[in-house]
């Protein structure tokens, strides 16, 4: 087997274009996938026309909220480009300088303050259906966030106004009387007056006013709590049932490395085995010089070894930019090695079926890419039936198990590394057996 | 059939009652013969007669449905029709690899000997992919011979060679036979068999229909101008008498 390994390494060394493609192409794909996963949703670049007069406020009882706060909320949610007029905004959208424009109308304060009509924003889009859909989703999210922030401020102002009604005191509003009595103080004051008032119609009237004040104070206190609830009706409390909160950037590193391992191992194993058939050397080797099992093992080890080198080099390289726990490097090697061996087993199975290198490479590529992508489909992204089918496919091929193993090794996620290793070992045996059958059938044919 | 006394020659190779079936198709039917050391035997026959199947079973590439071959595959040098070489490796590296896989005690010496015998010493460091068809076939044969096997099986060794390359190849193969290696080769060229073979096996529909020297076959069909015409006459006469051809 050593002679065959040396021979294959010599051939690889002389196939610089092949090696270049084999190393850089998977890395490029891996980095692209990793980048796509790690990148947080981009803040849309949006032109904002704020037509509200400077310093305008919305009056809520004795409280005021500056309209400019809404614009600031919106600015914080998008990559905001302030523009001075609606026409300028349209020009920027047309020139594709921005994805969309939002016009905050001059009457926003009046409408919100009227309590009878909603404020209304104008959103100006451009682009094809996909772009519109993307912008619409991002912008709706940004507007929802801004609305939420603004409504919290309004709710806070309303709560303060109610509080002033209940507790009394100074409202801090120009022209308002000072040291106002609060609703909750009225019953006590009235009781003292009632005690001095003789029985009769006046006393009855005072008792009714006192009862009303007590009732009103109690209900306004409830209203304040209701306002808080309405301002944020549902609060999110996260409970993690499975896995751990893997930081997105380190998970992206794991995905990128696993994709590299997959492509290098599968393409190399499939190509190296198919090359023996293409060069007619397979028959010469297996007629007593090398057993078929040894040949498969040699190709598997060659491919797994090369992909492990590429994968670990990539992990180490990316590790310079992303914080990784280097004390677990031993586990990385175990996880990446097991993944590489399972991918190599898949590769030799493909190589045993194909009669020539091109067919083997094409088959390996055509199979590898969807396997990788399917394993990354999150729950809920597709229908339950499709997700179950994807689960079965992902279980039958080594990508997901390798990804989970490496994620467990790098990020301490669950399921455990041991479980992933057992899964990978099983798949290794299955694909090894398929390769053995394929090699015999191919030769008999 | 051939001379009965030939079977008495000490056997470098004994093939006994070989049969091979592919489903309903009977590719070989009860094929038996013995070959002596240094004998150069041509296996002839029309397309589909079973020539390649017979040689590949003798070489250990396929298992027979029944019957036996007296030698293990590793004792038989195998030269496939298409060169089985690594194009990216040099001539010497190809030879060295197979010398090591054969488990030879001194691979370097074996490589040097093969380079000398094939006359490829000056091309030893050239990648096989850069060689002409004739030189490539010489390396192909050299690999079949690197372990100095007692028997060499060649499947249509001159199929892709020009006249000059064929001449050099047969000079080399005849030299090995003269040195005691039993050589079996399949061919489409009757003239090649007439010129180089000591003995001819003619297969038809998986069975041996003639086993004898080229002179014996020509004597049996005096009207035939050469071995190829004699073989055709033999197959025609079998067809006329209700045989498979």
Structure description:
The complex is a heterodimer of chains A (445) and B (245). Chain A folds into three domains: 235 residues, no CATH class; 123 residues, abc type-2 transporter like fold; 48 residues. Helix content of chain A is 69%, strand content 7%. Chain A is built from 16 helices and eight strands. In chain A, the strands form three sheets. In chain A, strands 4-1-5-6 form a four-stranded mixed sheet, with helices on both faces. Chain A has a two-stranded antiparallel ribbon with strand order 2-3. A two-stranded antiparallel sheet of chain A has the order 7-8. In chain A, helix 7 packs antiparallel against helix 8 and helix 13 crosses helix 14. Chain A is elongated. Chain A starts with a helix and ends with a helix. Chain B is α/β, with parallel strands linked by helices and 245 residues long. Chain B has a single domain, classed as P-loop containing nucleotide triphosphate hydrolases (Rossmann fold, 3-Layer(aba) Sandwich), CATH 3.40.50. Chain B has eight helices and nine strands. In chain B, strand 8 and strand 9 form a beta hairpin. The longest helix of chain B is centred in the last third of the chain and has 16 residues. The two termini of chain B are 16 Å apart. At the A-B interface, helix 1 and helix 10 of A face helix 2 of B.
